[in-house]
Input
Amino acid sequence: MNILYLLIPLGIIFMAVILAAFLWTVRAGQYDDMEGPAHRILMDDDDPRIPRRDPASREQHEEDR
Amino acid sequence: MTREACYHCGLPVPRGSAFRRVVLGEERAFCCPGCLAVAGAIVEAGLEDYYRHRTETPDGPPDPLAPLAGLDLYDTEQVQRSFVHVAEGDVREASLMLEGITCAACVWLSERHVKALPGVLDFSVNYSTHRARVRWDTSRVQLSRILQAVHEIGYRAHPFDPGRQEASFKRERDRALRRLAVAGLGMMQVMMIAVALWLGHGAAGQEDMMHFLRWVALFIATPVVVYAGAGFFTSAWRDVRQRRLGMDVPVALAIGSTYLASVWATVTGSHEHVYFESVTMFVFFLLTGRYLEMAARQRAGQATEALGRLLPAVATRLTDTGEEQVPVTELSPGDRVRIRPGEPVPADGVVESGRSSVDESLLTGESLPRARGRGDGLTGGTVNVESPLVMRVEQVGADTVLSAIQRLLDRAQTQKPRLAVMAERGTGWFVGTVLVLTALVGLVWWWWIDPARAFWVMVAMLVVSCPCALALATPAAITAATGALTGRGLLTARGEALEGLASVTDMVFDKTGTLTEGRLSVRDVEVLGSLDRSGCVQMAAALEVGSGHPVARALVEAAEGERAWERPLAAKGEAPEDDGPRTFPGLGVEGWVHGRRVRLGSPRFVAELVSGEAGGHLLDMARQHAHHGTVIALGDESGPLALFTLEDRLRPDALFTVQALKERGLNLHVFSGDDPVTVRRLARELGIDDARGGLTPADKLEALEALEAEGARVAMVGDGVNDAPVLSRATVSVAMAGGTQLAQASADMILYRDQLAVLPAGLDKARETSRVIRQNIGWAIGYNSIALPVAAVGLITPWIAALGMSLSSLLVVVNALRLRDQGLTGGSDGT
Output
């Protein structure tokens, strides 16, 4: 049973870490938009995988970015 | 061949349209140059993926001309001062409101497109609120270029000032979340410890461990009580100072006394029980309920936010030297401003010269623009439709009608629901009684029975009588029901609205914009001359094309329906002195078609052109048709050609709604300001017996009061400003989202998808809610009145009391949760 004297304080430290993490997410504004990120993860932010026919416009686009 | 749909916006493509372009490797057709330009911009920016990802098409074709004028002005310091935040050096930050976002692909598209601009440091769109934050380097790119980039891909961006309210909403939300987190995590930990304490209670040889566990529980519960529960203590303290007994007083008393008693037991090491788990759970549940309530309130607040966008940012001021573009904030009374067709009126004032018609649907709900000439008043935010006006500014800023409406809205939103106020008054009485009883019982125990147990009996009584269940009964039910209704398209702006809706016996509808769509369409064409029906429609459309007037829109639509666009008629350049149709505000248009002078407009206006006898005949005919709707005549110098009867169409779901409401035992009425004959005919179509037309706002109010005098409880459904007094007088009022802001401000509920069919569902939900609230309150009171005497005689220890209290609250919450919608039914069910 003596192990509890170690494990319970450890549990409290864990809780404190979790709480700190949660408070950080609140401050970082992760609860401001509850819908967008779920969609955003599905949107591919890489360049289009299929090469376009008109290389000139692509280069132009590349420069712009 | 069926008609093709526009690849960008989904509207039908007119025949013979030449707007085509290759997208995603295929040639696609577009309905207008606007859509073509947008698609072009998207493809050229390498963002074709948008068309692959999107799940919904835009609401309509983009307006290629609208806001580009005066965009440069957004780059000036004066205009930027109100909404731009200077981060450091050349870096600027601003919030933008995006219009036209329909699905996640829009967010992706606009983010990628704008971020591709050199100088834009960050552009992120919040999908829930349709707002974007933009950060840019002002030495490399100007704000106007960013707004234009958004515009290129078919959206509209308005800079907007997030304002104090928005910031305070966010602060409130964040603080509530932090407290909730502390309470939730603390509760879980303390509960775990509590199980060990309960099981090990009285176990021989484990006293040290028990003592240690009690200290641990104290350690964890302290931040929960002190930080998460601080709100209860402060508001209880405020109540006490104002000599009121609010809901928070017993809550604070219960939390405080239970906590302190447990601390006492822990510190002194006496072998009594500790109640940290009850305290933490209590705090957590109450905070959850309040968080949900706050979320619903903030969401209702956002619905009215768009008001600020109605005033333009820029006005054209007339000075001695000419015109100058100035920010609207710079205007002062006495200034003269020019308002071009299509522009909103920047402030309140009086017309100095020019004649035009002005779209006042914002204020009046009236679908037809009103003629305005010299000396007539103009209200800021209304839109000039036909021809340029010069206005002398009379009121600016906080004195304008629009600002007054905004203030009204603010006040309406901060008001406490009547029900909550009533509940609080009831609680005061309840709390007072419990406190007096507890003190008496405590004294009795102290003097006559057992002084050692007196304190614990008192704690048990406080815990058991804790009005937690009572406090949760109403908000939990309202929160759950409000959430469910919002999902279907009925926004509850005030807490008591559901209660009111559940009790109504009568429902009164306004006509225009409520039962009907508030948009004209051609119902009937009567051919009077040599030209056939299709020819008449085509000629009318040719005269009206390009006009923003609702009559013109109806005629152009009718021409599309007739497929008359195949041989488009030109109404241009045929007369020697004229280069197009000339508008006579309030009367109609005149132009040349096929070398003939043609007039389209009010019968009287056309009859002036037509020779004597035929003109009289035309007026007679028009009178006969007048009670079917708005009559528009078409004629040339040789005689009248056609009469168009234009009518406001019934909403597609009106009939279903009326039937469904009748099935639920409601008496239905139509009160309208329109022509009595039209109103009666429409009511007959729908099966409503009581239809009254020609009512002024005062008449409507009187009719409503007469109904109430007979004992009816009335729900009013309307949309116009003329409905506002009636809306605020009725037991419960529902405004259409397409209606005016003022109507929404005085309404309890808003049908934000403009679907009437949600009403019967809302009624069911409201009745269910009031049933659940009654059950909850009944349970809470019943439980308390049984448990209190039992605790008073010392039969239950505080921990049993806490368990009972917790279970009682849990029961109330679970009961309330039944009101949530099972799954996502959306607004389409029941139609």
